[in-house]
Specification:
The protein is built from eight helices and twelve strands. The chain has about 250 residues and is of the alpha/beta class. Strand 1 and strand 2 form a beta hairpin. Bound molecules: adenosine-5'-diphosphate (ADP) and magnesium ion (2 copies). InterPro entries: AAA+_ATPase, ABC_transporter-like_ATP-bd, ABC_transporter-like_CS, FeS-cluster_ATPase_SufC, P-loop_NTPase.
């Protein structure tokens, strides 16, 4: 069964410590949400987990099914089943969305186990329909000229096709109107399974009206300072973050 463990993770950007010891454990079937004010290190956590070169991990341990994730290159992490939807997906000129998707899927499946072109197209078209994406997006260059909402839907399309074990979604809800939010949430919910765990990073509780998390963690100043169930997200929506700071004596 899927088991993802982050222990005492510390990371710096340009010498400045941003993550100050993050602990989180995700089992297959679980959805964890991380909420927190802007600038607390949520995106840094996502990037550090994926191995972004800008972020230096200085301490801690990350394992997926017992394997050392921090030891892996970015592509090895993807192959091991880690998926990250970034807050700001990058554009790749000259590579079409469908070419990108097919090579990502084949990299994940491994040599000798590549998906056939016909099967890939059938799967991609099916998922695009589910996400109410215009079929022409298959042939456009990756994310080039996509609107914010189209990029987010495209990230979910990648997630659905890659069949990862651990999914990290960084502010997948930002910039989405209510219809796009519902479509993205349906995509996530359709991928819920006992074999898969989710880490959903969000600034707003709104997304969690559509995707019910099992656990909610509050992140502040590079640490998870409070954990609870969905009711914690509701309280944050109602009362903001100040009460958490007061309760814990955090001064900023
Ligand atoms: P969040 O996602 O919670 O809003 P971030 O992880 O994006 O927070 O940022 C955490 C802190 O790290 C902030 O103080 C931010 O200014 C800083 N930071 C993030 N990315 C960079 C970067 N590329 N270079 C320098 N500082 C950065
Ligand atoms: Mg931010
Ligand atoms: Mg962020």
């Amino acid at each position: 069964a899927t088991h993802f463990v982050v222990e005492g993770l510390k990371a710096t950007i340009e010498g400045k410590e941003i993550l100050k010891g993050i602990n989180i454990e995700i089992k297959g079937g679980e959805i964890h949400a991380i909420m927190g004010p802007n600038g607390t290190g949520k995106s840094t956590l996502a990037s550090a987990l994926m191995g972004h070169p800008k972020y230096e991990v200085t301490d801690g341990k990350v394992t997926l099914d017992g394997e050392d994730v921090l030891d892996m290159e970015v592509d090895e992490r993807a192959r091991a089943g880690l998926f990250l939807a970034m807050q700001y997906p990058s554009e790749i000129a000259g590579v079409t969305n469908s070419d990108f998707l097919r090579s990502a899927i084949n990299a994940r499946r491994g040599e000798g186990n590549e998906v056939s072109l016909i099967k890939f197209i059938r799967q991609m078209e099916g998922k695009m329909k589910e996400l109410e994406m215009n079929p022409e997006f298959a042939h456009r260059y990756l994310n080039e000229g996509f609107s914010g909402g189209e990029k987010k839907r495209n990230e979910i399309l990648q997630m659905m096709l890659l069949d990862p074990k651990i999914v990290v979604l960084d502010e997948i809800d930002s910039g989405l109107d209510i219809d796009a939010l519902r479509i993205v949430a349906n995509g996530v919910n359709s991928m819920r399974s006992e074999e898969r765990g989710f880490l959903i990073i969000t600034h707003y509780q709104r997304l969690l009206n559509y995707i019910t998390p099992d656990y909610v963690h509050v992140m502040m100043q590079g640490r998870i300072v409070k954990s609870g169930g969905p009711e914690l997200a509701e309280r944050l929506e109602r009362d903001g973050y100040d009460w958490v700071k007061e309760e814990l004596g955090i001064v900023d």
